[in-house]
Every structure is written in C-alpha cells, then in structure tokens.
C-alpha cells in the first residue's frame, strides 16, 4: 500500500469513479498485493483512524470480478476498515483519498506493501503505526511532528519511517515482537523521551544523519536474540539505560559527539551492549551476569562495574573504573577498529503503483464514496 498526496480538483466525480475533494490536498493510499488475496473481514487489509472533515474516497483496482464483489469497507466513527467478505484470488491495489494531514493511526494486518506518502500524517497528535504479519508499512514525510510516536511490529513484517525531521514533544516508542523490523531514518530526531523495545529475533534501527536530542531518558530493552541499533552523528540524553536479557544486542554509535549525564548498561546472558563515539558521562554503571559483553568508549568521571560469570567489560579509559568480579570475567582495555569508509544506511524506497495500470492485466475499478 502506498499513501501519497494527489492533485486537488473541484470537478465532480468522474464516470470512472474517482472523487476529487476541495481539500488543500488529498492523499491516495494504494494497497498492492502480488499474491492471491486471502484476507477476510476478520483479518482486514488496513485500519485507518483519523479525524476526517471530508468524505474519503476508496478506489479498488483488481483483475478479478471475485475480488471486486468481495471488497468491503466498514466505517465506524473516524475508523475505516478495509477487507473482504469472502476469500478470493487475484491481484489488486487500493487507493484511499483523505484530506491532507488527517491520519493519526494506521494498522496493517495483512501481507503486501502499504506506503504512506508526505502530507498524510496528522501534525500535533499522537501517531500510532502498527503492523502484524509479514507485510511492509513504509511511511515517508517531510516532517513528522507529533505529541507521541508509537511503532509496533508483530510478526515478520517491517515498519519504516523516513523523514527529514522527527519532532516529538512526548515519547518515541518502538516495539518489535517476533522476527520483524522497525526502522526510523531521518536527518534529525528530537523528543522528550525515547523507549526502544525488542522481544524475539527482530531488529530495530534508528539511523539519523545529524542529531538525536532526547531531553529526558533514552531506554533500550532487548529480550531474546533481537537487536537495537542507534546510529547518528551526535546523540544526547539525560540518561541512557540499556538492558539485554538473552543473546541480543544494543549498539549505540555516534560519529562525532555523545552526551549523557548517566549511562546504565545491564546484560543478563550472552548478549552485548556497545556505546561507541566521542563523548563523556558523569557516571557509567555496568552489570553483567553470565557471558555477556559491554563495550564503551565514553570517558566517565566514575565507572562502577559488577561482573558475575565469564562476561567482559571493555573500556577505552580504565582510569576511573571500580570493578567487582565474581567468576572468570574481566575488565580490560578496549581497542576499536574504525570502518573506512564509514557505512551508509539507505532506506527502502517507497513504491508507487503508477506503472501497474499500464500492464497487460485487465484492471477493473470499483469506487466507494463515503
């Protein structure tokens, strides 16, 4: 599915079934499945929640009369649910046109690709993006400005946000349950708090070209074998708390500057935590139970290390380290090998189905107004 603005028009609905609104701009949401459609109303394609001041338009393009007849839209309050009344087979994509900056919640519970293009997400509201299953939910915007931002991935799918700036007055929260992925790719990120959580084998990536500025706490928790990576030019937070339980990993990498009043790193099991960059902290508390590893290049005014087991705590500066080790664990000097050239993070492109209607398929169209 791809969501993008379309050219506004004051003309009445065309005979082909497309509605243009008088809104400053409107949004088109395209849902594209290349496999058989086997979704039912109990397992809908998408769920959109928004305060919509204009009548939305939903257009289905498909190559099967069976799908055309089975497609259904349910509207309850400000929630639109798209799905099927019965199982069918064929290829399709769906367009949902709504006014600009009117979508606060997108919930995807199917396979296929759903994309959200610029000027769709609401400004100054709590934004929630949820995906369950193997599908991809790709969001692109110029600026994501919200009171809260929640990204929840369940299953093996992917949620990705790509924006020039992500500015949140409250909490940025990500959660991956299963083997899926969540990615936030931006030039700049600012928030009051950040909470990144992984449970399972999935991955979370926060890739920022410039600054990550968290005025409060940044909290990262990984359970099982998953991983959380935060890569930025500079990173600042009042407190950085990282916790790994199992064989997972937390990697915080800054290219130029890191700043946090306190750092807390806790590993239980065989996982690892890395805080790498040029910076300092007033205090770094490290706790390792098992065979895990903590690596840090931060200069700490005070560093307290507790190891129980065979784990390793590696620091670039050992002068202020006070360690208590029970078992075969060690505290030792950290030597880093820098990557040359530095690696580059590239976001997945947001697809549009503009070439699809020109293909050899006999596309059928069905429009629903309101």
TrEMBL record:
It comes from the Eukaryota. Residues 211-332 form the Putative auto-transporter adhesin head GIN domain. InterPro entries: DUF2807. Residues 1-22 are annotated as: Disordered. Residues 1-14 have a biased composition (Polar residues). This is Putative auto-transporter adhesin head GIN domain-containing protein. It comes from Aphanomyces invadans.
């Amino acid at each position: 599915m791809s969501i993008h603005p379309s050219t506004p028009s004051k003309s009445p609905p065309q005979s082909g079934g497309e509605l243009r609104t008088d809104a400053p701009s409107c949004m088109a949401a395209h849902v594209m499945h290349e496999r058989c459609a086997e979704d039912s109303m109990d397992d809908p394609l998408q769920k959109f929640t928004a305060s919509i001041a204009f009548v939305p338009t939903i257009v289905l393009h498909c190559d099967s009369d069976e799908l055309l007849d089975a497609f259904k839209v349910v509207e309850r309050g400000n929630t639109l649910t798209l799905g099927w009344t019965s199982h069918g087979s064929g290829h399709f994509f769906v367009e949902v046109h709504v006014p600009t900056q009117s979508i606060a919640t997108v919930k995807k519970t199917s396979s296929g690709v759903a994309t959200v293009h610029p000027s769709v997400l609401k400004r100054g509201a709590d934004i929630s993006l949820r995906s369950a299953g193997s599908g991809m939910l790709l969001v692109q915007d110029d600026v994501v400005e919200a009171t809260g931002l929640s990204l929840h991935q369940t299953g093996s799918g992917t949620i990705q946000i790509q924006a020039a700036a992500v500015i949140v007055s409250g909490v940025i929260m990500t959660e991956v349950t299963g083997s899926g992925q969540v990615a936030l790719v931006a030039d700049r990120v600012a928030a009051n708090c950040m909470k990144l959580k992984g449970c399972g084998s999935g991955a979370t990536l926060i890739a920022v070209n410039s600054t990550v500025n968290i005025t409060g706490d940044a909290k990262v928790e990984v359970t099982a074998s998953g991983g959380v990576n935060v890569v930025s030019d500079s990173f600042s937070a009042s407190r950085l708390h990282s916790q790994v339980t199992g064989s997972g990993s937390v990697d915080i990498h800054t290219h130029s500057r890191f700043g946090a009043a306190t750092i807390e790193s806790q590993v239980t099991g065989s996982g690892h935590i890395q805080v790498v960059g040029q910076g300092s902290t007033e205090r770094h508390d490290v706790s390792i139970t098992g065979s895990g590893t903590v690596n840090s290049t931060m200069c700490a005014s005070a560093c307290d290390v507790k190891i129980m087991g065979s784990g390793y705590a590696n620091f670039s500066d050992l002068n202020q380290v006070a360690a208590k080790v029970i078992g075969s664990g060690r505290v030792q000097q950290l030597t880093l090998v820098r990557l040359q050239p530095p690696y580059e993070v590239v976001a997945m492109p947001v697809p549009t189905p503009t070439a699809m209607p020109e293909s050899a398929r006999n596309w059928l169209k069905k429009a629903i107004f309101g």
